[in-house]
Design goal:
By secondary structure, this protein is α/β, with parallel strands linked by helices. The protein is built from nine helices and 13 strands. The protein starts with a strand and ends with a helix.
């Protein structure tokens, strides 16, 4: 991985030659600082203003692509004329486009049943929060209480071994996610929207393991940026931390204004 800011010359040259851009951004840990619970996450006013300005720039489409449910991320950003992806791309909605993964939609009943069982297994007193996102489910353990730590990871290890029926577990920042095998991910979501928009040049920024799907998808054809350096990442560049995302958005907007 290379520093984004130490390579702005070559990056500017690549972006200058693109008539249109699709700028994709994760939400938690990228647009918003990581919070103790999903409900505490907020989009700072200056980042919201930067997103609005970028979306208004000539030839730019902005895609906020999150592991959250679609309506959750739309509500947190609160801007029109953007594209939004929920459940890692299982749901996409924006100007002139609305799509939902049929494979994941068929598994809603099973997902709801399993999420209910997980809530019983991990009640609030454990510090674990189970989130049913309709097309996927998340088990957040950022606030896991010390007395329940050993039991929690033992149960999760067993769940990950036993789970079947077309579902699988994956790990993120202090969260385990239950997803439908074969359903859309962030990589396929970026490609799907890019095809709808006539194949603009794609940029993608994110900080979590699920963002690696879009980094891999764009490894040869786009510009990929990880928030926080991680040598094992498939992203080509990195930003030092989440506060640098504002500077990143302003950088792209400035380039488009010059164009």
């Amino acid at each position: 991985m290379r520093s984004f800011w130490k390579n702005t010359g070559e990056i500017s040259a690549r972006l200058a030659g693109a008539p249109r851009l699709l700028v994709t951004l994760d939400f938690d840990g990228t647009l918003s600082a990581l919070a103790k619970t999903p409900g505490q996450a907020r989009l700072r006013p200056e980042l919201k203003a930067a997103l609005k300005e970028l979306a208004a720039a000539p030839g730019v489409s902005v895609f906020v692509l999150s592991g959250r449910a679609l309506e959750s991320v739309r509500g947190l950003v609160g801007l029109r004329n953007l594209y939004y992806g929920g459940n890692h791309g299982i749901e996409i909605k924006g100007p002139g486009f609305s799509w939902r993964d049929p494979v994941a939609a068929e598994a809603r009943g099973v997902m709801a049943q399993l999420a209910a069982g997980l809530k019983k297994k991990f009640p609030p007193k454990t510090g674990v929060m189970v989130e049913n996102k309709v097309f996927s489910a998340s088990v957040h353990y950022r606030n896991l209480k010390a007395g329940f730590r050993a039991g929690f990871f033992k149960h999760m290890k067993n769940f990950m071994k036993e789970q079947s029926g077309g579902l699988s577990w994956r790990k993120g920042h202090k969260v385990f996610e239950l997803v439908v095998i074969g359903a859309a991910n962030k990589g396929s979501a970026v490609n799907r929207l890019a095809a709808k928009l006539g194949r603009p040049y794609c940029l993608a920024a994110g900080d979590d393991l699920t963002d690696e799907d879009m980094f891999r998808a764009l490894s040869r054809s786009g510009l990929t940026v990880r928030v926080g350096r991680k040598n094992a990442s498939c992203a080509a560049y990195f930003l030092k931390d989440q506060p640098e995302v504002l500077k990143y958005l302003d950088f792209i907007s400035a380039l488009r204004r010059k164009k």
